[in-house]
Design goal:
Blueprint (H helix, E strand, L loop, with lengths): L10 E6 H15 L14 E4 L6 E6 L6 E2 L5 E3 L10 E6 L2 H7 L5 E3 L2 E7 L4 H5 L4 H13 L4 E5 L4 H17 L20 E10 L2 E11 L8 E9 L8 H15 L4 E3 L3 E2 L10 H7 L3 E4 L6 E5 L8 E7 L6 E7 L14 E10 L2 E9 L3
Parallel strand pairs: 1-6, 12-13, 18-19
Antiparallel strand pairs: 2-3, 3-4, 3-5, 6-16, 7-16, 8-13, 8-14, 8-15, 9-10, 10-11, 11-12, 17-18, 19-20
Helix pairs in contact: 4-6
Length: about 375
């Protein structure tokens, strides 16, 4: 099961594909006259009326008479159509084959959590040379603006610097956000161990931190390489227009290489942008050469969008591509599509663009990427 409900998304959950069909789909088909009876087989189970409700059934196991109650007595509405008011419909348990079949019915088979990763670099010029023209121009301007500030890096991270950043930059910045939540602990700097040390890069003005990125070094695991992983980043409002955070995001890639790491990761996100996470986040992260990677330690999701009125005008997420190890990028626009090219990345199998009109998703185009 995903953590969407913890992320300001209302979710209607069904325990399985069978429950979804029995509870929601068959009653609607019967109401529209597309099936003779809602009492039909459900994955080898049969349904018969209960004695307590005229409009309900219980899924039954086979018995000598053909009618015996399934353990747990799953109840499904058949004559009264169930109305789903939640923003997202989610099926909690499913097989991979079921998931891809359900995509034909408007569902998306997708990772719950994702991270971003790239190789580290020996110098800033190496990174700048691989950026788009506009991004490179923006970065060079940020580098010029940063000359008025003191650049500092620490490995290991000290209590004084971390708490200066935490108290004067991070906490006040979170308080300004609409759905801001303080997730970093004030003693995070010292919670590392031999397999997870703490470090950071900062800009200071007159000795005080005005922007910073803190990260942890993580040893190689059975599935992931030795890496530096960015944990938190924040800058004060008055220096944000100067692009200091852009500059720090450039410098930490080089800093990771200097610390002996071949890869740098960017923590983890819930794979749904346009609600509690801005749809601009994947644009920013991938603009610096990062690629999206599913985190297999979290369960995958099988979801269908039901009401997007509470979402931003632009929504982005990735889902699995059948028969490919690559991911599919999905863009949903509630208004006229714009800036589609910012989401087109070579690590994607394709980019699909949808338009949401009157609550319905319409596929506008599928853009194959060159990777």
């Amino acid at each position: 099961m995903s953590d969407l409900k913890e992320k300001f998304v209302s979710v209607k959950e069904y325990s399985s594909v069978a429950e979804y069909h029995t509870t929601l789909v068959r009653p609607r088909l019967k109401k529209r006259g597309l099936i003779d009876s809602a009492v039909s087989e459900v994955t080898s189970l049969r349904c018969v009326p209960t004695s307590t409700r005229q409009n309900s059934v219980k899924c039954l196991e086979d018995s000598p008479t053909g009618n015996s109650v399934l353990k747990g007595g799953v109840t499904a509405v058949v004559d009264t159509e169930e109305r789903v008011l939640e923003e997202v419909i989610e099926i909690r348990k499913f097989t991979k084959d079921e998931a891809f079949r359900m995509e034909e019915k408007g569902f998306f088979f997708m990772p719950n959590k994702i991270t971003y990763f790239r190789k580290t670099a020996g110098d800033e010029c190496e990174i700048l040379g691989a950026l788009s023209r506009n991004k490179r121009k923006k970065m060079k301007k940020a580098i010029r603006n940063s000359s008025d500030f003191e650049f500092a890096y620490e490995n290991p991270l000290t209590e004084k610097t971390y708490q200066n950043w935490y108290d004067n930059v991070y906490v006040p910045n979170v308080a300004l956000k609409k759905h801001g939540r303080i997730v970093a602990a004030r003693d995070w700097w010292k919670t590392g161990n031999e397999d997870s040390c703490r470090m950071g890069v900062f800009f200071k003005k007159k000795g005080d931190v005005v922007s910073g990125i803190v990260a942890k070094g993580i040893s190689k695991s059975s599935v992931l390489p030795k890496r530096m992983s960015i944990s938190y980043s924040s800058g004060t409002n008055d220096v944000r227009p100067l692009g200091l955070m852009d500059c720090l995001n450039l410098k930490i890639i080089v800093f990771a290489k200097e610390c002996g790491y071949d890869y740098i990761f960017r923590g983890k996100d819930t794979n749904l942008y346009g609600k509690h996470l801005s749809s601009g986040i994947p644009v920013f992260k991938t603009s610096l050469g990062y690629e999206i990677m599913p985190l297999k330690s979290w369960a995958d999701m099988l979801i269908k969008f039901n009401d997007l009125s509470g979402f931003e005008d632009t929504i982005f997420f990735v889902n699995y591509a059948k028969g490919s190890k690559k991911l599919i990028g999905n863009l949903i626009f509630k208004k006229e599509p714009e800036n589609v090219g910012e989401y087109k990345k070579p690590f994607l199998f394709m980019l699909r663009v949808f338009r949401c009109t009157d609550g319905k998703l319409k596929l506008l185009e599928e853009i194959r990427t060159r990777g």
